[in-house]
Design goal:
Structural class: alpha/beta
Order of helices and strands: EEEEEHHEEHEEHEHHEEEHHEEHEHEHHH
CATH class of one domain: Alpha Beta
Shape: globular
Distance between the termini: 28 Å
Radius of gyration: 23 Å
Strand content: 25-35%
Helix content: 25-40%
CATH architecture of one domain: 2-Layer Sandwich
Strand order of the largest sheet: 3-2-1-6-10
Bound molecules: adenosine-5'-triphosphate, magnesium ion
Number of strands: 17
Number of helices: 13
Length: 426
């Protein structure tokens, strides 16, 4: 279904804020033409503080980093913003808080052409069902994942087709109200209005997958600092999400513990000498490990690189074994496709592609943002896949935002619309 919403006006600005366990990043874009093309005019990113595996543990700390990051991006975009502060922002939904359900909806079309209104009506009904089932949740995405008319499946664009009854499987993603409230508080204290949330791994997929991968079935694995999240795409739709509360930071703390060094030295050792797979030469290559509390360089330990790799490898294997179990339990089977795209900052460790390929038994490639023009070089790496995907989501998929659906649906009574509005705006 195409967006019923008009593109944002040429010259208007939109922003994305990616609140991660390792970094918080902000992108400001201006709509540069009547087709809704976005041009990046401001960027900011900063190490995060007060977030653990996607959950806020210190509101004040997160708020400070957001303010600093947004301020940096606003300064860079000063010429475009012409003194006006940034307002509208799309932010990531940390996967730990996401819940997915498939709602089945049947609509009678009595021999007429399916209209855009029919589709919105069906989606709004799915949202209503989901709200009734989980009254404590906030709606995040409503995606028409598959569609059939009079029992004929595989229909990609039902609008304009004729039939008696329309059946939709709607992928509804919701999140616990309290988690959303905490994130909103941090963002709104920086005087920003959240226009939408977007699941982190969904955004990562939107920015890294090529069209054929989205169409034929692919699994994106976003390996962040505190979380590894999964998004499966097929028929260009998001059909499955899940996550594991383990990421690159866990690898770093394993190294710190195993080699009795500080977290910052462990992070440095990981990025400089780390690998997901042992090689023949690792026993001969010696590395220098500063010990906790020992400033004197003569007290550094010299260890073979194989010791470091021996700490990293089991943790990464554990992550991929958990991903494999999640995918097996999902029941998606061949729908999930043969292709895996690894992205996120923690995907940069050498050898990761090989071990993931062995464990998951699929073709694996490394993914970085490919769908956003004018990104500065510092933000072209896999750690910014989610950040850039948030803008792609706004540009291409705003018809999946629940409030847009309820506003566009003529089927719900004013009272029902009010209930949906309340759910979305807590
Ligand atoms: N060159 C590298 N090699 C290995 N790991 C790296 C490298 N560069 C960054 N990382 C790891 O990437 C992780 C951060 O990734 P990313 O920026 O995607 O996380 P995040 O989005 O902030 O976290 P999350 O999505 O879990 O909330 C850190 O654990 C960091 O150690
Ligand atoms: Mg992330």
């Amino acid at each position: 279904m195409k967006s019923k919403l008009k593109h944002r006006a040429k010259g208007s600005t939109v922003a994305a804020l990616d609140i991660g366990s390792s970094k918080i990043a902000c992108l400001i874009a201006i709509i540069s033409d009547d087709q809704g093309t976005m041009e990046i005019v401001g960027v900011g990113h900063h190490a995060s503080s007060g977030i653990k595996s996607g959950t806020i543990t210190d509101l004040k700390a997160v708020e400070n980093v957001i303010r600093h990051t947004v301020h940096t991006a606003e300064n860079m975009a000063a010429k475009t913003l012409k003194g006006y502060p940034l307002r509208d922002v799309v932010i990531n939904l940390p996967p730990a808080h996401a819940k997915q359900q498939i709602e089945q909806i049947d609509i009678n079309i009595s021999g007429h052409e399916v209209t855009e209104t029919d589709m919105y009506r069906a989606l709004a009904r799915a949202q209503q069902k989901a709200i009734n089932k989980y009254p404590g949740d906030v709606l995040i995405h409503s995606i028409a994942a598959s569609c059939n008319i009079d029992g004929h499946g595989g229909i990609q664009e039902p609008i304009g087709m004729v039939g008696e009854s329309l059946h939709l499987d709607v992928n509804i993603i919701t999140a616990a109200q309290n988690a959303i409230k905490n994130m909103s508080t941090c963002v709104e204290r920086s005087h920003l209005d959240i226009i939408s949330f977007c699941h982190s791994a969904y955004a990562a997929g939107l920015s890294t997958l090529v069209e054929d991968e989205m169409e034929l079935g692919s699994t994106v694995i976003d390996m962040g600092g505190g979380t590894t999240s999964i998004a499966v795409f097929a028929g260009k739709k998001l059909i499955y999400i899940d996550s594991i509360p383990i990421g690159g930071k866990h690898v770093t703390s394993d190294i710190a513990r195993g080699l009795t060094t500080s977290l910052s030295h462990a992070e440095r050792l990981k990025t400089l000498y780390g690998s997901a797979m042992a090689t023949m030469s690792d026993d001969n290559e010696m590395i220098d490990v500063p010990q906790i509390g020992e400033d004197n360089i003569t007290n550094h330990r010299h260890i073979p690189r194989s010791l470091l790799v021996g700490i990293i490898q089991p943790r990464l294997e554990e992550i991929f074994e958990m991903v494999r179990a999640k995918l097996n339990d999902s029941g998606l089977g061949p729908l999930a496709g043969r292709r895996i795209v690894l992205t996120g900052g923690a995907s940069q460790i050498p050898g990761l592609r090989d071990i993931s390929q062995n464990i998951l038994d699929k073709q694996v490639r490394l993914g970085r943002p490919i769908r956003t023009n004018s990104l500065p070089e510092t933000m072209q790496g896999p750690d910014f896949a989610t950040t850039t995907g948030l803008l792609t989501y706004l540009a291409e998929r705003s018809h999946e935002i629940p409030s847009n659906i309820s506003n566009s649906s003529e089927d719900l009574s004013i009272m029902e619309k009010f209930k949906v509005w309340l759910k979305e705006n807590w």
